[in-house]
Amino acid sequence: MIRRIEFDQQLDELKTLLREMGKHMEEALALAVQSLQTLDADKAQRVVDNDVQLNAMEEQIMDIGSRLIVTQQPVAKDLRRILVAFRIASDLERMGDLARDVAKVTLRLQGQKLIKPLVDLPRMSDQVRAMVSESIESYLTENTDLAYKMAQDDDQVDHLYSIILQDLFAHLTSDPDTANQAMLLVMVGRYIERIADHATNIGESTVYLVTGHRPDLNQ
Amino acid sequence: MEAIIQIEKLNLYYDTYHALKNVDLDIPEKTVTAFIGPSGCGKSTLLRTLNRMNDMIPATRIEGSVRIGGTEIYGEDVHVEALRKQVGMVFQQPNPFPKSIYDNIAYGPRLHGIKSKSDLDGIVEQSLKQAALWEEVKDYLKRSALSLSGGQQQRLCIARALAVQPDILLMDEATSALDPISTLKIEELVQELKSTYTIVMVTHNMHQAARVSGQTVFFLNGEVVESASTDVLFSTPSDARTEDYISGRFG
Q1: Which of A44, A98, A163, B152 is most buried when burial is the number of CB atoms within 10 A of its CB?
Q2: What is the mean pLDDT of residues B76-95?
Q3: Chain B residue at shortest CA distance from A213
Q4: Chain B positions touching chain A (beta carbons under 8 Å)
Q5: H-helix or E-strand containing B211?
Q6: Angle of helix A76-108 relative to helix A41-72, nearest 10 degrees?
């Protein structure tokens, strides 16, 4: 068996970068939600500042992948490895932006007190982080079963999100003075829910990588 | 679509060497089919069985069936010359005759009994146009074909093959000795010719197969491993050996 050593090393490099991006993204989400729970501006600022690293890693993946397409003329699964790396990198970069948006809410709430202790949003965030972790794991190990299982968890996330919405809408109507903060927290719920959707995209990419067919896990 | 070439249980031996093993393959009319595979896999051997070029190799033995347009080409009453008129061939190295451009094209039609100058003029012009060479040579038809560039010589050989009005054109690595621009010209030409002719090509350039053909057949050790539409074979091949080969991880 001829091995394309240089090519395979570069394909592995894409994987390594995506693993790092995934880890980075999970940490950003955890830190952003922590910052919101305690309205900790320093933590929030760290999330905002660190986002450039995710952007840089995405660009690195685009550079390596484009170079491999030009120089190695990949076909079949080799080509899918690169196309999938582009797509996952773009998903993770967007997820990073959404974690940054959560942190920005913390910054906007400076000088205020939380209208209620946050319980469901951190729970939702924990579930979504587990999804992100599983989606990356499914990609790294090419485990389509895990990709499908992870996508099912999105239903629970959507359920939690609807509970959060009901709760905050109740605040909006009962205490108009807190409307501004309640709106911002609704948006946080929306940001986290969007992150889960991107995680299911990663699951779809895994299935496409392995089978060559595109499923729709976002249903 | 009706298969113009139907190959069934074809086995070919060079003396004791079993070069083609139980090949079953249908090639539809007016399509481009590419044969790919490592050296010695049997792809050129199969191509050469389609106009009986293997007859010239001593100790060659063939079993099975090759039908072209419904006729068994290894049948006793088949005239090889008539077969080769129906099934033209272009080789790796351009091989123009050391004659004028005009006489290269007119050679086959003359052999088949066409003598009228105006008929021959018409055939020469039409063949050169079909081979996308007319504009480049129309004012120099009396010049030696050997004065042409390699890419032009190869298109001349294609024109020469077309001049006897074949149904099928076999191309055995017809661009492997050409530069990239000449290669692209031939590839474009193939795209145009497929509306009129059935083209079967052997190529070592997998990306050429991907660019040009509608059907690709992957050979290994004298067997057809996989035959599929080209986009399927190069994106989601069904056999792991095909995937290894097209991904360059074979050997």
Answers
A1: A44
A2: 93
A3: B236
A4: 206-207, 210, 234-237, 243-244, 246-251
A5: helix B206-212
A6: 160
User: Cβ atoms within 10 A of the Cβ of A214, count?
Assistant: 10
Q: Count up the domains in chain A and report the number.
A: 1
pTM above 0.80, yes or no: yes
- For chain B, the domains span 3-95+163-246
In a domain, A218, yes or no: no
Residues B60-82: tens digit of each pLDDT: 999 999 999 999 999 989 999 99
Residue A120 resides in a domain? yes
Question: Looking at the partner chain, which of B210, B246, B249 has a beta carbon nearest the beta carbon of A1?
Answer: B249
* More confident position, B8 or A177: B8
A49 lies in a domain? Answer: yes
d(CA B170, CA B109): 19
CATH superfamily for B3-95+163-246 is P-loop containing nucleotide triphosphate hydrolases (3.40.50.300)
With an 8 Å Cβ cutoff, the interface of chain A facing chain B consists of: 1-4, 7, 73-79, 211-213
Q: Which residues of A52-73 are buried (b: 16+ CB within 10 A; e: fewer)?
A: eebeebbebbeebbeebeeebe
What's the rounded Cα separation, in Å, for the pair B135 and B185?
14
What is the domain extent for residue A16? 5-211
